[in-house]
């Protein structure tokens, strides 16, 4: 099929000037798609995917492009579907604390719109100005505020999705009390776009707190983290985030509430830390200083290298970090860590030879007993994701995932290779 003819056929479904031949900026994992399409409506998307299915084309979905090097290496791609044309806030039901937003809307634009009613979608992953709602749901990506508010899977209550064959499905309700039946909404979160193309999502919202403040705890060493985090979790304090940075070893403890509560809780952190370890230093950051602190924290994602999400038991996270630090030193691999200290979910950044990184990740996984921990590659160059499985051992859940994939996309045309099955 001539390329120009292919573009014309795609435009017959998505409209004039909404499709183009794949170019250098459209490559994914080194593969150049035949054509890129940008549907402007759910109806255009359904027609496009139905046609692509009939033509037996492989399809990949692209939002803001911030996570194209996450997950498995894409197996094949004929057609890239851009969600940039689906970028509106469909409805904001501020009285119910819910909103429905299209998949191509960026997180920053959504929260700017919701902020007019002093509400927000409580996610703070990196690159909020570019990261789209669809991509955040597809990867179940969150950020420091996951400690208090949960991940996308915890606040999603409805979804509209188009399957690989062009069939549209809806699940969930528009208010929290109406959520019932088959949980298609949560099924889409973390599926890496391998089950369907998300059109719009309905979420529970959170009121914007009138004040915030962050206690920065400078630790003597990473070994000091665990007992201080345990004290914070078991106390009466209500932080929004408890984040680790290392090196140097630091904890960022954020509070969001009324002014008096923020001040008293930040002061309580200083007393709690002093009682536990007098060598630690606590400073409280507000306003511009606080914003700068968190911008620096998010900016660490911009540094080059592989990102591996390590999840394990609370009492195992520090020994795991210490072991990994020594292993990296022995093999000339740079390493740093940051993440949800109180949830024992930490992102490790590695920078070194690809084969050495692959070996380190394999050895790290071998430290965990089945069900007791995981090391998932979040971001890496294609060469590393080809040499070592990004997901690691999945266990008995693999058969369930394969069955679901077979039901939603039996021909394996959608985001082939990107998800765990």
Can you tell me about this structure?
- Strands 15-12-14-13-17-18-16-19 form an eight-stranded antiparallel sheet, with helices on both faces. Strands 5-6-10-8-9 form a five-stranded antiparallel sheet.
- The protein is built from 14 helices and 19 strands.
- It has 421 residues and is α+β, with helices and mostly antiparallel strands.
- The two termini are 30 Å apart.
- The model is unreliable at 175-182 (pLDDT under 50).
- Strand 8 (156-162) and strand 9 (168-172) form a beta hairpin.
- The protein has four domains: 3-82, 2-Layer Sandwich (Uridine Diphospho-n-acetylenolpyruvylglucosamine Reductase, domain 2); 89-207, Uridine Diphospho-n-acetylenolpyruvylglucosamine Reductase, domain 3, CATH 3.30.465.10; 211-299, Alpha-Beta Plaits (2-Layer Sandwich); 303-397, Alpha-Beta Plaits, CATH 3.30.70.2740.
- It is globular and about 70 Å long.
Name the structural class.
Answer: alpha+beta
What is the helix tally? Answer: 14
Distance between the termini: 30 Å
Share of β-strand residues: 15-25%
> Which CATH architecture of the largest domain is right?
2-Layer Sandwich
**Relative helix content:** 25-40%
What order do the strands of the largest sheet run in, or round the barrel if closed? 15-12-14-13-17-18-16-19
Radius of gyration: 22 Å
Number of DSSP strands?
Answer: 19
Main sheet makeup = 8 strands, antiparallel
- Please tell me what the overall shape is: globular
């Amino acid at each position: 099929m001539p390329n120009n003819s292919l573009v014309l056929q795609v435009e017959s479904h998505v409209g004039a000037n909404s499709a183009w031949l794949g170019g250098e900026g459209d490559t994914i994992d080194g593969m150049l798609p035949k054509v890129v399409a940008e549907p402007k409506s759910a109806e255009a998307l359904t027609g496009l995917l139905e046609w692509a299915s009939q033509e037996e084309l492989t399809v990949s979905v692209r939002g803001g492009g911030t996570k194209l090097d996450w997950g498995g290496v894409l197996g094949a791609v004929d057609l890239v579907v851009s969600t940039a044309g689906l970028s509106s806030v469909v409805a904001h039901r501020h009285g119910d604390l819910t909103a429905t937003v299209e998949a191509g809307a960026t997180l920053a634009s959504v929260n700017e719109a919701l902020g007019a009613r002093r509400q927000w979608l409580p996610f703070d992953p990196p690159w909020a100005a570019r990261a789209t709602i669809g991509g955040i749901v597809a990867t179940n990506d969150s950020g420091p505020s996951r400690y208090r508010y949960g991940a996308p899977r915890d606040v999603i209550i409805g979804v509209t999705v188009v399957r690989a064959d062009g069939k549209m499905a809806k699940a969930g309700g528009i208010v929290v009390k109406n959520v019932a039946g088959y949980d298609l909404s949560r099924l889409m979160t973390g599926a890496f776009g391998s089950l369907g193309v998300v059109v719009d999502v309905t979420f529970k919202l959170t009121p914007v707190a009138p004040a915030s403040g962050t206690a920065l705890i400078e630790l003597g060493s990473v070994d000091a983290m665990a007992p201080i985090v345990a004290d914070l979790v078991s106390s009466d304090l209500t932080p929004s985030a408890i984040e680790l940075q290392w090196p140097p070893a630091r904890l960022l403890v954020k509070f969001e509430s009324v002014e008096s509560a923020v001040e008293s809780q930040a002061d309580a952190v200083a007393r709690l830390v002093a009682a536990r370890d007098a060598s630690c230093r606590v400073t409280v950051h507000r306003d511009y200083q606080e914003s700068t602190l968190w911008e620096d924290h998010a900016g660490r994602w911009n540094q080059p290298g592989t990102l591996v999400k390590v999840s394990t038991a609370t009492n195992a996270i520090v020994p795991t970090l210490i072991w990994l630090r020594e292993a990296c030193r022995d093999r000339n691999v740079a390493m740093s860590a940051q993440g949800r200290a109180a949830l024992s979910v930490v992102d490790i950044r590695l920078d070194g030879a690809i084969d050495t990184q692959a070996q380190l990740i394999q050895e790290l996984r071998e430290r965990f007993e089945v069900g007791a921990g995981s090391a998932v590659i979040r971001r890496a160059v294609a060469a590393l994701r080809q040499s070592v499985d990004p997901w690691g051992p999945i266990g008995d859940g693999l058969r369930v995932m394969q069955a679901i994939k077979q039901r939603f996309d039996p021909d394996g045309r959608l985001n082939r290779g990107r998800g765990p099955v």
